[in-house]
Design a protein that fits this description.
two-stranded antiparallel sheet
């Protein structure tokens, strides 16, 4: 089963907003860059706004923009805004409680998953949106000079 792409899409949106330096961006413009439907972008912007990362202005000339500077936003902030905690999903049905493996699987997987998520979030916490946007811009510049 494929994993969620919400974080990747939200990071894309946030990087675009950082690149446009405070100029409001419409969900249609953002959706075009992501090659998705504007409704998908609006749902993600809602989650990002709820987390205090974006704000939107309604009406003509309106759109989404960063709620604070890209130096103050980490990739972990973006991840937490759009993803449900838990890197290792547990089975939907309870295993046989009479089975020693079955009755101990959930706690064992939860411990492993919690440790993995802590390490994963620490790595995302170390990267600001400003650093990430610079990395994206540098990759684009390198691709253009190679062409």
């Amino acid at each position: 089963m494929p994993g969620s792409t919400r974080f990747a899409a939200a990071a894309h949106i946030m990087t675009l907003l950082a690149a446009h330096r405070g100029a409001p961006q419409t969900s249609e413009t953002l959706a075009k860059s992501l090659a998705t439907n504007p409704a998908v972008v609006r749902r993600l912007l809602g989650a990002l706004a709820k987390a205090g990362l974006t704000q939107s202005d309604l009406g003509k000339g309106g759109g989404a923009r960063l709620a604070k500077g890209p130096k103050k936003i980490t990739l972990a902030d973006i991840y937490r805004a759009v993803e449900t905690p838990g890197l290792l999903p547990l089975p939907r049905s309870a295993p046989d409680p009479a089975c020693p493996v079955g009755r101990n699987m959930a706690p064992a997987l939860t411990a492993v998953g919690d440790a993995a998520e802590t390490a994963f979030l620490a790595s995302l916490e170390a990267v600001t949106l400003k650093q990430f946007a610079k990395e994206i811009a540098a990759g684009d510049a390198a691709a253009k000079s190679a062409a």
